[in-house]
Amino acid sequence: MKDLTPPKASLDPIEIASRDEISALQLERMKWSLRHAYENVPFYKTSFDNAGVHPDDLKTLSDLAKFPFTVKADLRDNYPFGMFAVPREQVARIHASSGTTGQPTVVGYTQRDLENWGQVVARSLRASGLKPGDMLHNAYGYGLFTGGLGIHLGADALGLTTVPISGGMTPRQVRLIEDFKPNGITVTPSYALSILDEFAAQGLDPRACSLDVGIFGAEPWTNAMRLEIEQAFDMHAVDIYGLSEVMGPGVANECVETKDGLHIWEDHFFPEVINPETGEPVAEGEQGELVFTSLTKEAFPIIRYRTRDLTRLLPGTARSMRRMEKITGRSDDMIILRGVNVFPTQIEEALMTVRNLAPHFQIELSRPDRMDKMRILTEAADPSVAPADRAEAAKQLAAKIKQTVGISVAVDVTDVGGVARSDGKAVRILDKRPKH
Ligand code: DLL
C-alpha cells in the first residue's frame, strides 16, 4: 500500500494547533452557539429556561454540562422546520433521515453552513490520504441522505475529480472503477463488500484496481473488517463518522498514517461522553454515549445532542484534536440476550476469524417458548465450499461467539448471495420477537 500521509503544510493550522488555542476557540464559539440557539429557536429557549440556565452561565467549557440535552424526539416534535434558527429563506439546503422508524428528522444548512461542511469533509478526505487532483468514486447515496452530497461538497472543496455514482447498480460500480481509475472510494463498508463480490463475479482482481484508499462510514464496522477490506483491495481503509443532526459525514475522520480512531473536528463540533443511564459526564477515556454541541452552525444549531453512539474519547495523535474510538454500536442496536449485552460488531469480529465464510451477516431474533433466541445468517465464502466445510464453519462460528460474547447462537450458512444486501447501510438485525 502506498504511503498517503498528507504533508504537514497542507493541513488547516487549527488541526495541529495547541490544546490551549483549540479550547479558546471552542469557548468563544460555544458562547455564540448557545446564544444563537436560545435567541432564535423557541425549543431551546424553553428547554434552557426550564433547566434554569442561560447562555451567560457558560464561563468555561465544562459549564456546558449545566445545559439540558437534546434528543431525537425533540427534533421530531418540531417537525419539519421548528428547530431552524434562521428564516426559511436563508436555508440553502435541507436533508432528512430516512424516517423508517417514525417521523423523518429534518435538518437545514445556510450557505455558510454548507461552506463549513465542505471544509470539514475536505479535511476528512485529506486526512484519508487524498490530495487535489485525485479522483474520488463517491458511492454514498445522493438525495436526502447526507452521505452522497456531503462527501461531494468536501471533494469539491479539496479539488478532487468527483464521480457522483451514488449507491446501487453494482456491475456499473465495478465497470467505472476499472475504466476511470479513481484513487479513492467513499462507500458504506457493507456495500464495499458487495462491490468486492462483483469484482469476483466479473472475473476481475480487485487488488489490481486503481484504488489507494476507501473511506468507510455511516454504519459500524470493525478493525477485523478493515484488515479484510485492505487485503482484498490492496488499499488503505479509514473510518469516517457523522450524523445528519450534527452535520452529516465529516464530523470525525481517521488519519491514514495512524488509523487509531477518528479525530473529531473539534473546532466545529464539541464532543462529550456521558453515562447513558445517569446523563453524567464519564471520567476521561471511559466508554459511554457520545454527545455533540455544534459550535458554528447557523441554520440548525444543536446543543448537547445525544447521539446514542457508544465510544470513548482519546487524546490527539496525528492531529491535536481529540479522537473517538471506533464506534462499538448504537445503544438502539444493543441486543440483550438472556441478560448478556450483544452488539452486531461483536458478531462481525467473530465472523472474521472463521475460514470459508463470507463477511456478510444478519442477526435474527425470535422468541419460541418465551425464550429469546439468536440465529446468525451468513454465507459460504464461495460456491466451492463443500457442505461438510460449511457445517464445520457454522460450528466454529457458534463456538467463537460462545467464547468471546458468552451466548449460545444457531448459525445458518447459506449459499453465496443468501444474505440480503443493501446499497447503503446494512440491516443487521431482523427482530421477529412478538411485540407486546
Ligand atoms: O450516516 C452520515 C454519514 C454518511 C457518515 C457517510 C459517514 C459517511 P445518518 O444517516 O444521520 O448520517 O446516520 C448517523 O450512523 O449516529 C451512527 O450511528 C452511524 N454512523 C455514522 N458513521 C459511522 C461510523 C450518516 N463511522 C448514524 N461508524 C450515527 C459507526 C456510524 N457508525
What's the short story on this structure?
The protein has 436 residues and is an alpha/beta fold. The protein has helices spanning 19-40, 42-51, 72-77, 111-127, 146-158, 170-180, 189-201, 223-233, 344-351, 387-404, and strands at residues 93-96, 106-109, 135-138, 161-163, 184-187, 213-217, 236-243, 248-254, 262-264, 269-274, 288-294, 305-311, 313-314, 323-324, 329-330, 335-337, 340-342, 357-366, 373-380, 410-414, 429-431. Residues 97, 140, 145-147, 217-220, 239-244, 248-249, 307, 309, 327, 330 line the site of 5'-O-[hydroxy(phenylacetyl)phosphoryl]adenosine.
Account of the 3D structure:
The strands form five sheets. A nine-stranded mixed sheet has the order 4-3-5-6-7-8-9-14-13. The protein has a four-stranded antiparallel sheet with strand order 10-11-12-15. Helix 1 packs across helix 2 (42-51). The chain is built from ten helices and 21 strands. The model has no long low-confidence stretch (mean pLDDT 97). It is an alpha/beta fold and 436 residues long. The chain binds 5'-O-[hydroxy(phenylacetyl)phosphoryl]adenosine. Residues 97, 140, 145-147, 217-220, 239-244, 248-249, 307, 309, 327, 330 line the site of 5'-O-[hydroxy(phenylacetyl)phosphoryl]adenosine.
